[in-house]
Amino acid sequence: MAVTKKEYAQLVKDVSPPTKSIKTIPCAFLVGGSICLLGQILGDLYKLGGMSQKNSSTLVSITLVFISALLTGLGLYHKLAKIAGAGTLVPITGFANSVVSPAIEFHSEGLVLGLGAKIFIICGPVILYGVSASVIYGFVYWLIKVL
Question: For residue 52, what are the domain limits?
Fold first, then answer.
């Protein structure tokens, strides 16, 4: 049985629950903003403790990655993501979650073929295209400076 793209799209639309934008958008904004606010508060606290701007920024990143990984390991990040939606995709916490989730899921398959092979299954494309884009942008920037 062959199904056209149009028929498939209609089938998906019929089966998928409607998005509750009035609820999800404010939740995403509040949770994403709260994560960023937490980062700002941590940075200010680290600077009050006598750290330089550079060191406090580094420690904020480490702290947010640790909290995200811990919440993922405890199964709480997924629950937060159900409520917040895209608000949990704040880059550093979402990236940590995308590394830890497959590590937990595929750990039972062994350290090499499970954990080692699949740990970057979700975030691998982000790394690949991020590095590729930065090389291209750097080359274009260099060309503009040379010319």
Answer: 27-120
- The tally of domains found in the chain comes to 1
- The token pair at 41 is 């508060």
CA distance 115 to 138: 33
User: Any idea which residue has 């940590």 for tokens?
Assistant: 96
User: Is 16 among the domain residues?
Assistant: no
Cβ contacts of 38-46, under 8 Å, gap ≥ 24: 38/64, 39/64
pLDDT digits (tens, 9 = 90+) for 48-66: 999 999 999 999 999 999 9
pLDDT given at position 111: 78
Say if 6 falls within a structural domain: no
Specify the pTM.
0.70
